[in-house]
Design brief:
Structural class: alpha+beta
Number of strands: 19
Helix content: 10-25%
Distance between the termini: 56 Å
Length: about 290
């Protein structure tokens, strides 16, 4: 004997419970090209912006991934995506230039003392040596955090963690970078004040900086200064000094946030410790990764 009355009551009750869970987002309905999934834990289906997904997959920083998306090189579940705003989950099929990409499981962080004569990129279309040539032992795809000019040496970070790269390079987080700069000419306190107040360049005025005279060499008519900036305009330090009439003879980054170059030999690298990674995350105002 089937009591249809009770079956109807159960059905109605289930619908009410379902609507309640949907309302308060205890469950989440996700529809893609292939299926409809009902999940009783929203955390099981974490949707995130496509550029963040690509950054987690080790493609590059979020800003670089945005450029990749806008270029039309990305497909999601077989459909080309060339606008920002798309959200995906780990269950989606994401391709870049026809190659399937997935988030990396192990996050890697390196510090490199970059020599002059290397380009800060993954590969160079002109056949020049890249900073990755200095890390032949690393088989996992990594990429530089920000840039150092071809003729600039010093502290360079490399990683496959897109959030890390984003936190340290986006201008709004104002993570300081310190350089040792040797310039042609004798600099005075007046010019130091101008560097600290900000220099008007072609692409706008630079943010306030910290500058300090380290050495004045009257015989060679050169000066060495330490300059700390919190933004990353193209060739910013060189242009700031040149605008004041002091061509840069040599440029070396000696500190990035709380991380110092210290005694790392030129052309050598090492892994960052978990404590160093966490400190850099916190300096940018981000919560450190749990793993």
């Amino acid at each position: 004997y089937i009591n249809y009355k009770w079956i109807m009551v159960i059905r109605v009750t289930l619908i009410i419970v379902l609507l309640y869970l949907l309302k308060y987002k205890y469950i989440y309905i996700y529809i893609n090209y292939y299926n409809v999934v009902f999940l009783f834990e929203r955390s099981l289906l974490r949707l995130e912006r496509l550029q963040k997904f690509l950054a987690r997959a080790g493609i590059g920083s979020r800003r670089y991934c945005e450029q990749i998306i806008l270029s039309g090189a990305v497909k999601v579940n077989g459909k080309r995506v060339d606008t920002l705003g798309t959200k995906v989950s780990d269950s989606d099929r994401v391709e870049v230039n026809g190659k399937l990409v997935k988030p990396v499981s192990e996050k890697l962080y390196f510090i490199l003392n970059k020599p002059r004569g290397y380009v800060t990129t993954v590969k160079d279309d002109r056949g020049r040596k890249t900073v990755l040539d200095l890390l032949p032992e690393v088989s996992t795809r990594i990429y530089p955090v920000g840039r150092l000019d071809y003729d600039t040496e010093g502290l360079l970070l490399l990683t496959n963690d897109g959030n890390f790269a984003y936190a340290l390079t986006h201008p709004k987080y104002k993570v300081p970078k310190t350089y040792l700069v040797k310039i042609k000419g004798i600099i005075t306190a007046k010019e130091i004040d101008r560097l600290e107040a900000g220099i008007l360049l072609e692409d706008g005025k630079t943010a306030p900086a910290k500058a300090q005279i380290i050495k004045i060499d009257q015989s060679s008519q050169t000066s060495t200064i330490k300059l700390t900036i919190r933004e990353g305009k193209n060739r910013q330090v060189r242009r700031m000094c040149s605008t004041l009439g002091f061509p840069v003879l040599s440029l070396k980054r000696i500190q990035f946030g709380c991380l110092r170059l210290e005694n790392l030999p030129l052309g050598r690298f090492r892994k960052l410790s978990k404590q160093e990674v966490n400190k850099l995350y916190l300096e940018a105002g981000f919560k450190p990764p749990s793993n």
